[in-house]
Amino acid sequence: METGGSSESPIEPKKTKSKTARKPKENLLKQKSPAEFFAENKNIAGFDNPGKSLYTTVRELVENSLDSAESISELPEVEITIEEIGKSKFNSMIGLVDRERIDEELYDDFETAKAREKRLAKEARTQELHAKNAALGKKVKEPQASKGMKGRGEASFYRVTCKDNGRGMPHDDIPNMFGRVLSGTKYGLKQTRGKFGLGAKMALIWSKMSTGLPIEISSSMKGQSYISFCRLDIDIHRNIPHIHLHEKRDNKERWRGAEIQVVIEGNWTTYRSKILHYMRQMAVITPYAQFLFKFVSDTSDKNVTIRFARRTDIMPPVPIETKYHPSAVDLLLIKRLISETSRENLLQFLQHEFVNIGKSYAERLIGEMGPDFSPKMAVKSLTSQQIVRIHQLFRQAKFDDPSGDCLSPAGEYNLRLGIIKELHPDMVATYSGSAQVFEGHPFMVEAGVSIGGKDVKQGLNIFRFANRIPLLFEQGADVVTRTALKRINWNSYKINQAQDKIGVFVSIVSTKIPFKGTGKEYIGDDISEIASAVKSSIQQCCIQLKSKIVKKIQARVQQERKRNLSKYIPDATGAIYDVLREMAQLHASKKKRYEDEDADVLRKVSTHSITKQTLSEKLARHVEQVDYEMALEYATQSGVSEEPREAIYLQSLEDGKNFIDFHSPVFAFRLYQ
Amino acid sequence: MAEKKKRRRTDPSDSDQQHLPFKNSLKSDEIILQTLKDLCSSSSSDGAAGTLTLSDLALASTCREVADLSLSSVQSAIETLILRLTHSILSGQGFSFSVPSRSSANQLYVPELDRIVLKDKSSVRPFANVSTVRKSAVTTRILQLIHQLCIKNIHVTKRDLFYTDVKLFQDQTQSDSVLDDVSCMLGCTRSSLNVIASEKGVVVGRLIFSDNGDMIDCTKMGMGGKAIPPNIDRVGDMQSDALFILLVEKDAAYIRLAEDRFYNRFPCIIVTAKGQPDVATRLFLRKMKTELKLPVLALVDSDPYGLKILSVYGCGSKNMSYDSANLTTPDIKWLGIRPSDLDKYNIPEQCRLPMTEQDIKTGKDLLEEDFVKKNPGWVEELNLMVKTKQKAEIQALSSFGFQYLSEVYLPLKLQQQDWL
Known about the structure:
The complex is a heterodimer.
Chain A: H1 4-8, H2 16-19, H3 24-27, H4 34-40, H5 50-71, E1 77-85, H6 87-93, H7 113-135, E2 156-164, H8 174-179, H9 199-210, E3 215-220, E4 226-235, E5 240-250, E6 257-266, H10 268-285, E7 290-296, E8 304-308, H11 331-340, H12 346-353, H13 359-369, H14 384-396, H15 412-423, E9 427-432, E10 436-438, E11 441-451, E12 459-466, E13 469-471, H16 479-487, E14 501-510, E15 515-516, E16 522-523, H17 528-567, H18 569-588, H19 596-606, H20 612-638, E17 659-663, E18 668-672
Parallel strand pairs in A: 1-7, 12-14
Antiparallel strand pairs in A: 1-2, 2-6, 3-4, 3-6, 4-5, 7-8, 9-11, 10-11, 11-14, 12-13, 15-16, 17-18
Chain B: H1 2-10, H2 14-19, H3 29-47, E1 63-64, H4 71-90, E2 96-100, E3 107-110, E4 115-119, E5 122-126, H5 133-152, E6 156-157, H6 158-163, H7 166-169, H8 172-186, E7 195-196, E8 202-205, E9 208-211, E10 214-217, E11 226-227, E12 235-239, E13 244-248, H9 251-259, H10 262-265, E14 268-272, H11 279-292, E15 296-299, H12 304-315, H13 324-327, E16 332-336, H14 339-344, E17 353-354, H15 357-368, H16 370-373, H17 376-388, E18 390-391, H18 404-415
Parallel strand pairs in B: 6-7, 13-14, 13-15, 15-16
Antiparallel strand pairs in B: 1-4, 2-5, 3-4, 8-11, 8-14, 9-10, 9-12, 17-18
Helix pairs in contact in B: 3-18, 4-5, 5-8, 15-17
């Protein structure tokens, strides 16, 4: 960042240059642009280290793509490619000639003679151990191929490309959308994935910091005959875009969407699983989107290609921009609303700029404010004191809770499909709670609980979503994790917390998610409204599952009855026969007399016409008969109805749109014309 | 006597008084002995009244009770049962047992007898049912094993029995509980099945009896005392010059009393089963009580479990209620440590323990039990315990010195005739 020195120098007064080159710097009042601030505190936005930066870059680009496609109600199709760039390739990209090391000792990863001795000794020891183990016939893991010594300087670079079929961007806005931190289209009070207009710009800042390469954007909007192409980077100190190339190109294929390409430093090895988890969870929560994830590198065995196929074409409704709830505003916000409003007088302002204030209620509020307020007074003429008074009243007065209409939850149907699609569980239950309120912002909790499935580990697997974004970090402190671990008594739902493969999915949507910490990684456990909503949602799922599990256990008992009964036949008949044989001996030796039938039986025992085998066969036949009767009884009780099968989704080949969809969170109804 | 003199001599010293509160109120041993003699004579005259049985109360038809059966009758009972099973199997009906239910719903406390008896409800245990198949298989196996014991006329322990077919029985609680079922089913005591439990109880003091023909003098058994023999039918010829029987819940208190030779100062027999009493100890206590006609005083912890143990000696356990006639010892006096003693003897706070939720629940449940209700003194004490929510073990008395129990507490209790 020291390159900035040159741009600063013109501002610096010339006269101090000679005498006090060091001292005055401390006293100089400097200003920082937002871009500079975020460059220095990039961990706030999730760019803590190269690995995390790669992850966050992918994440921001994917989320932008989804938002973009959803905003025009288009089923999203997102292609994300991470291409590993070797050092020499990178150097050639930036026009740097590869240089051989001349002074080996200069480098951090230079191995001194002493270190070398130590390493060789260690290697010899492990080899010896290995040979010994091999001699003993023990199976041991192959010693790991000694990792290539990787010093600080040896960074890995990646080209991240994200292509979508979204709205695209207006040609002239592109530079500002990428080259200006804290500028964005998502600032309104609305449930969106992004919020601060930071994501794509942070990727750009990070690329500038780590590689110095610009970002490349191609975009085309609906009906445009051209593709906008823009190559730009950011002037961090002035927080303005620095355009390399901005032109219109031919759009022969009538392509619509956006493609963003950025080259950054990263770390695929350590963040591979995080990125793949992210993609998988994203596929769970957005089953209506299609993702193609590719990792390309020079060594082909590291390559990864995963397609997350679309499973439904039902999209959640586009979230509606809503107005503020009176209890959620602060002084500054009121002032901003006043300066932005087009309403003339106070009454109209209250009535139209906030939710849950009707005309009569607004009049009552104004009456309560005091004698120097009147419904007809010009809203722009309010003094600071008067605004404080309004704020006070907003905090004290009672308002109806905001409705959840402005929220766009994933929908029980989609959540369910997503879980089934990605996890293939044995059982799944979903539940969608009603909207609730925390600090004037409505929120909604949806939950899913699954049992079994592929690639699911034993015990609790927790999947968290906030505004339909997967949350992967800081799991321990999160409200969902804590609730699932501590406040749910899994046993009471016949679920074994340690043995079963339990998937817990909780999606929270809100106009303002109360994230904890700087990164938007987790929701704190201290908000009782959210905690109890999460708990009850999970419990609802469990209740649904319980009946299924009980049925399953019953069915298993049915299946295993005969086996369980037959298992004990030898024990029982063996014991009985032993006693009979003893008795037969006593009878034969005339020590003890038995009468009629009994004597008959004992005689047969001594003549071997009744043996253990006879008893076993008789008992086995009885067991079979009982089993048959029980099975009949079970069938008449439970009927032949099986579990309803999940309908499979077939992608339509032609886009014949002669139908109307009726959507609800739990089902979709399609009327063909 | 030498010891007594020494004790008197040290009496006036100040330090001793501080360490052993209430010692001053102790009268001489002769006076205490006199009260004990009175107790003893009244108890032996009571016993002459004779004991009631179920048939006396016309309950014999609705209640089930077992009796000691000879080996041969046990054997033929098993044989009859097995023949019935065989016929049933051969006719293609499978087989099933009818087992008397030992659940708490099938128990009845009879105040006239002062013990729990088993009612006549029984449950069917068919082989061809998933929930009972295991139990019925185990039952047949146990029947066969006992049949063998009868033929060979030997005794085995419950553990032995379990190990004959570990694969089937899986764990000892299962074979033990089926064993009780079997004795219920055959209508005999568990001892008549020739299956015994390993020794648990011990006895020390002024008692001489014969064990399998050997004469045992319990004053000469060292500190640990004599282990109570598991088969009571080999015990006989009991003689004693004791004035009472002291029943102790805990091993620790028992060792203290045995080492201090408490039975020499006040002639008594000291018995403990180290916690919940086993069958052998209960049979032994009953035998002592009926043959020697001595009063029984109990020293248990001041917590709900102490009282529960007392009740098992007194009225029987629910698990073995079918044999309560042989196992219970009527008229046991609760000597200590009672909840009221905590304040009476100024037991320091640090030696009292707060009762847990579970303790309080157990205490409240006990208040509902008939055997507690019949004794107003006990109800009062238990109410006090539940109210103060404090419990104390016998060892709490050690806060005044290890020998406080034998030197002051017990003599004082006896002197004041402070039993309920």
